[in-house]
């Protein structure tokens, strides 16, 4: 018998095995950008147990709250429990601002004076989505209070108003209680969004001149990884051009953000394999989806337009494939299993529908749009843009940048965030890359791993998923305090700063 026969038989067996493996792990078909976006936002709304009253806040003139410029109302929510100040002792405000560079848009916001000192920095918080209301963070993450039984409120011991005067903004237009009577005001890119935020802050400081000299910081999470650097660039440009009121921008912080998609999307398979939520054979198949994602991402950057929609579909197919493989695991926190419902944020919708609450806030009969499918879809061509490009110039001008990420989040995972932070070209890039990674310590216990150099810091937060201030409230407050005080550095990471 021919001596090569066993070798040929073995070769044939291996080919059949590889073919069978590839077939059995075949990626799910790639959907169009529009159908994929619709499925994604519907899945997200369901996962958080939200039931938006309307898809988007585009209303008739009869429903609109008629305002000119900024109209603000002080309110008092009854807050139970102690210790804590009486809500009447603090300035809690809600209001609308008529955005000047729109047809008819009004931006809704909450403003909470610091429980510590009015001289504390002014911090703005932006929730992502795109198209999800900042009230989700206000009541479930880092706002002054949380829900208790029967929709009663209790003080949040680790609310960020313990270290800052904090604004929660509903944006882009159509989100939360922010509305318009003209659908043409729905934003499609960061230029419109950052200009709206800049216009709002100008008017806010006109109405609150006592805070103009305070340090100013921009914060947020998730898709705010786009909003934040774009807004920071716009604000810094306004300051340098001496436009309007000088806003004392000191820094910005991005939590579990989506900032540089071209770098972050290829890290999905790496993160999934490193955390053992997929097998190596799954990894090999899913990695095949990376090259077309990269090619279309680059086309999006150079060509824009429909190429960005194609890039969205191709790159999100990577995440869809991983989600298909991990089944019931929560992609926002891979420690958890969930059957559709992963979090229950429904109380915020119930609370904000109460007539007494609406009267206190002066919002009339407006819908509360917890998350808007229409706003999400409007931003599809913005999704794959790289907004890390403006950050090096800010770093060179001494603006502090903090990027932090909960270690158990798949969706905006820490590996992808670390990669784009390290990839930025700036004068301190080499030194940042060589800087030691040291423990971030809270009450004598390691709460994360920190790397920093000059104005740039990266923090991986332990025992947290996508929503770091909810999962690790004490650590997130200390992170904010240390960072604003210039103490979140590799040499001082272990230094404890107790909540005020």
From TrEMBL:
InterPro entries: AB_hydrolase_fold, Peptidase_S10, Ser_caboxypep_his_AS, Ser_caboxypep_ser_AS. It is found in: Secreted. Its EC number is 3.4.16.-. Residues 1-25 form the signal peptide. It holds the Pfam family Peptidase_S10. Keywords: Carboxypeptidase, Glycoprotein, Hydrolase, Protease, Secreted, Signal. Belongs to the peptidase S10 family. This is Carboxypeptidase. It comes from Hibiscus sabdariffa (roselle). The lineage of its organism: Eukaryota, Viridiplantae, Streptophyta, Embryophyta, Tracheophyta.
């Amino acid at each position: 018998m021919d001596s090569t026969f066993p070798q040929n038989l073995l070769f044939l067996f291996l080919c059949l095995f590889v073919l069978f493996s590839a077939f059995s792990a075949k990626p799910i078909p790639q959907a169009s950008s529009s159908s994929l976006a619709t499925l994604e936002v519907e899945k997200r709304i369901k996962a958080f147990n939200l039931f938006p009253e309307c898809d988007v806040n585009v209303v008739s003139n009869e429903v609109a709250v008629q305002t000119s410029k900024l109209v603000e109302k002080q309110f008092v929510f009854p807050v139970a429990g102690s210790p804590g100040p009486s809500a009447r002792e603090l300035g809690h405000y809600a209001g609308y601002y008529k955005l000047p560079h729109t047809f008819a848009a009004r931006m809704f916001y909450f403003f909470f004076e610091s429980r510590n000192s009015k001289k504390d920095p002014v911090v703005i918080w932006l929730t992502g989505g795109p198209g999800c209301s900042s009230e989700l963070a206000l009541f479930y993450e880092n706002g002054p209070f949380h829900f208790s039984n029967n929709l009663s409120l209790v003080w949040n011991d680790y609310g960020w108003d313990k270290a800052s005067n904090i604004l929660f903004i509903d944006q882009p237009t159509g989100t939360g209680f922010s509305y318009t009577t003209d659908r043409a005001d729905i934003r499609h890119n960061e230029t419109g969004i950052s200009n709206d935020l800049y216009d709002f802050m100008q008017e806010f400081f006109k109405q609150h001149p006592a805070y103009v000299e305070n340090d100013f910081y921009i914060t947020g999470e998730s898709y705010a990884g786009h909003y934040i650097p774009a807004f920071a660039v716009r604000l810094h440009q306004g300051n340098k051009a001496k436009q309007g009121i000088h806003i004392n921008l000191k820094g910005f912080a991005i939590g579990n953000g989506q900032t540089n998609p071209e770098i972050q999307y290829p890290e999905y398979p790496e993160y999934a394999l490193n955390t053992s939520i997929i097998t190596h054979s799954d990894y090999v198949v899913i990695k095949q989806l990376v090259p077309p994602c990269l090619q279309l991402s680059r086309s999006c950057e150079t060509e824009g337009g429909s190429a960005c929609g194609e890039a969205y579909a191709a790159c999100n197919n990577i995440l869809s494939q991983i989600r298909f493989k991990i089944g019931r695991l929560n992609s926002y926190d891979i420690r958890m299993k969930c059957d559709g419902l992963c979090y229950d944020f429904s109380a915020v919708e119930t609370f904000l529908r109460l007539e007494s609450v609406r009267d206190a806030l002066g919002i009339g009969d407006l819908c509360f749009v917890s998350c808007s499918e229409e706003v999400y879809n409007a931003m599809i061509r913005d999704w794959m843009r790289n907004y890390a490009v403006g950050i090096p110039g800010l770093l060179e001008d001494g603006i502090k940048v903090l990027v932090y990420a909960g270690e158990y989040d798949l969706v905006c995972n820490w590996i992808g965030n670390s990669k784009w932070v390290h990839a930025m070209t700036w004068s301190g890039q080499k030194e940042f890359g060589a800087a030691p990674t040291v423990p971030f310590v809270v009450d004598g216990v390691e709460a994360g791993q920190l790397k920093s150099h000059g104005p740039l810091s990266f923090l991986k937060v332990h025992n947290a998923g996508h929503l770091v201030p909810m999962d690790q409230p004490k650590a997130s407050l200390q992170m904010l305090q240390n960072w604003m005080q210039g103490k979140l550095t590799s040499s001082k990471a272990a230094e404890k700063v107790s909540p005020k």
